[in-house]
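EI: anyone free to look at a 104-residue chain?
SC: sure, send it
EI:
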Amino acid sequence: MKKTRKPEKIAPTPVRLARKRVTFTAKAQPGATVFLAGSFNDWNNSDKEMKDKQGNGVFTAICYLPVGTHEYKFFIDGVWCTDTDNPNVVSTPLNTLNSIIEVK
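SC: here you go
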């Protein structure tokens, strides 16, 4: 009697979430220390430092975010700040506001 071979199980290929390039911009005093924090980095206020490449107080950071809605704030010289150029905000349980961005 001929033995039949069972087909090998193939592990599923992990699905890569589509990520989009997003540039964040914050305005602060030249020489300030500015970080970007949000739902996409567990609100780590020392993880993503923003750079003022021109020395004119315009700080930028580039992130690759998955499609969806993300909350964020800037941490400027130790103070949490919403994005003044983004009118889209959400209220938090702490009675503060977070800026929100929709990545499509």
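EI: Residues 28 and 57 are 5 Å apart (CA to CA).
SC: 👍
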